[in-house]
Amino acid sequence: MIKNYTLKQNLIVFSIILGTLFLTTFPFLIGYLIRGNDYFLGSSYLDRGDVNIYSSYLEQARQGHIIFSNLFTSEIQQPRYFSPLWLLLGLVAKIFQANNILIFQLARIIAGFIFLYFIFYYFFNLFFEKFFDKVIALLVLCFSSGLGIFFKKEVKDFSFLFDEKYIFKHYSVDLLMAEANTFLSLAHSCLFILAQLFVVIIFYIFLKNNFKKLDYLYLFGLNLILGFIHPYDFFIIFGVLAAYFFLN
Asked: What's residue 245's pLDDT?
């Protein structure tokens, strides 16, 4: 916890956390400063397709919808998507009459701070005792990536970069997916950050020394929430925990 460290140590940790969040926010600040008649500030520079969908959910929630539609298709459809996260943020935007993109970015920054705070002051305690070791681990977590940059195939014909099959065949996941490393997740959206936070909390509860029977209820609740906001992770976590309980 924060009280277990000196003021100087806490300042170091908060400097790393806030510095990381600033770096993930800096491109948006530049976009805001250069916006004008010929430029506009979008909501993300990562996975624009996903983020445009999230923005549409925000707007639909703001207009009073609870179940969402896919606004990026001309097909006849009925609203069928339910996302409590974007519903909540859309209602916040409506209540405070705030810009959707502003709410999107504030949610990303706040979620990022909570995630990194929990990682350092709680999760790292399971593996490290020394403050220095935790700081190094935090830096690695915030700024590390995969090794794909060293093995990527040289491209002479840049038209291949628009070929999805070529990209997925010759480039590793750390060069393609924002979820592949923490820094890009922090820069993407609060959805990726919160999903990662729930995964970490679930394993923290599971691995801590004083595991209690009540913690089973917490695990179930967190998995349920995770299933609503990011279903893919729900099946992974549930599978891992189910396998553990079955084998033991």
From this structure: 77
Phi, psi of 49 (to 5 degrees): -60, -45
> In the predicted model, is pLDDT for residue 42 greater than 70?
no
pLDDT one-digit tens code per residue, 145-195: 877 767 766 766 666 666 777 777 777 777 777 788 899 899 989 999 999
30-41 in b/e form (b: 16+ CB < 10 A) is: eeeeeeeeeeee
pLDDT at 62 over 60: yes
Tokens at residue 100, please?
């959707």
Under the banding of pLDDT at 50, 70 and 90, the label for residue 4 is confident
* Measured distance CA(72)–CA(171) in Å, rounded: 28
Distances (CA, A) of 137 to 116, 143, 166: 11, 10, 35
Q: Which tops the pLDDT comparison, 2 or 25? A: 25
Residue type, 180: A
Query: Is the whole-model pTM more than 0.70?
Result: yes
Cα–Cα distance list, 185 to 82, 94, 95, 190 (Å)? 22, 26, 27, 8
SS (H, E, C) 194-232: HHHHHHHHHHHHHHCCCCCCHHHHHHHHHHHHHHHHCHH
Q: Are 21 and 109 in contact (CB under 8 A)?
A: yes
Q: Residues 100, 58: contact at Cβ < 8 Å? A: yes
Helix axes 100-121, 48-62, angle to 10 degrees: 110
Instruction: Find out whether 190 and 50 touch, Cβ atoms under 8 Å.
Output: no
- The values of phi and psi at residue 81, to 5°, are -100, 130
Instruction: Evaluate whether 203 touches 224 at the Cβ level (below 8 Å).
Output: no
Residue 236 near residue 196, CB atoms below 8 Å: no
